[in-house]
Write a structure and sequence with these properties.
- This is IclR family transcriptional regulator.
- One of its GO terms (molecular function) is DNA binding.
- Keywords: DNA-binding, Transcription, Transcription regulation.
- InterPro entries: GAF-like_dom_sf, HTH_MetabolicPath_Reg, Tscrpt_reg_IclR_C, Tscrpt_reg_IclR_N, WH-like_DNA-bd_sf, WH_DNA-bd_sf.
- The chain has 228 residues and is of the alpha+beta class.
- It has 2 domains: 64 residues, Arc Repressor Mutant, subunit A (Orthogonal Bundle); 148 residues, 2-Layer Sandwich (Beta-Lactamase).
- 44% of the residues lie in helices and 21% in strands.
- The chain is built from 9 helices and 8 strands.
- Strands 5-4-3-8-7-6 form a 6-stranded antiparallel sheet, with helices on both faces. A two-stranded antiparallel sheet has the order 1-2.
- Helix 1 packs across helix 3 and helix 5 packs antiparallel against helix 9.
- The radius of gyration is 20 Å and the shape is elongated.
- The relative contact order is 0.12.
- The N terminus is likely disordered.
Length: 228
């Protein structure tokens, strides 16, 4: 069935929409994308590559086109693929550490918890899914500031250290008695898609949450990025 429609009179826009619509129905190889839209392969490739630059599309490890991380940001909701991939990672992280684990996405001037897992018992930090937290304090805020263009009260040296280490930590910075360590999660195309965090009582995690759980956190990040 022909999916390409030039009804708006703006040919490149109609073609771009046709390509996104085709990919939304399922990941597509270049040949499949060309067939679905009835566009020449060279045209489909050129437009899809331009959409990838803007993170509207992305490439899978099989070289197929998939929806990119920008679209959930436009619609205000997290990617179902990201949520599904994160669920077992968060469960494993909580089982390994006994602390709470969260996944955050950047939402304008806040960070929103899009997935979380809590230990079954004991004193722990609870961040309900949907919570919108500050970008001015906390380890996750440091990570977002290091990899995104946001206004944040962190120094350049601090953000350079986050990028060098691949994680950030905080103790009683956002909330008294709370500590955390966070790391960025990247799409295969290199775009920052989320921040993964471990958090818990400062009494258990101080003086350095990273020294205690860095290995587990970075391993979980690698697991999640492989799933993406």
């Amino acid at each position: 069935m022909r999916q390409y429609n030039e009804g708006s009179g703006i040919k490149v826009l109609d073609r771009a929409v046709a390509i996104v619509s085709a990919v939304a129905a399922g990941d597509k190889s270049l040949a499949e994308l060309s067939d679905a839209t009835e566009l020449p392969r060279a045209t489909a490739h050129r437009i899809a590559t331009a959409l990838e630059v803007h993170h509207v599309l992305a490439r899978t490890d099989r070289g197929e086109w998939s929806l990119g991380p920008a679209l959930p940001g436009y619609t205000g909701g997290p990617s179902p693929k990201l949520i599904a991939a994160a669920a077992p990672v968060l469960r494993d992280l909580v089982a390994a550490t006994g602390e709470s684990a969260q996944l955050y996405q950047l939402t304008g001037t806040t960070r929103t918890c899009i997935a979380a897992e809590e230990p079954e018992s004991g004193l722990h930090n609870v961040v309900p899914v949907g919570s919108q937290l500050t970008l001015t304090a906390g380890s996750a805020a440091h990570v977002f500031a290091a990899y995104s263009r946001i206004d944040a009260p962190f120094g350049d040296n601090d953000l350079e250290q986050v990028r060098a280490d691949g994680y950030a930590e905080s103790v009683a910075e956002r909330e008294v008695g709370l500590a955390s360590v966070s790391t960025p999660v990247f799409q295969p195309d290199g775009a920052l898609v989320a921040v993964l965090s471990i958090s818990g009582p400062a009494e258990r995690l101080k003086p350095s949450p990273a020294a205690k759980w860095k290995s587990e956190l970075l391993g979980a990040r690698n697991q999640l990025e492989r799933a993406l």
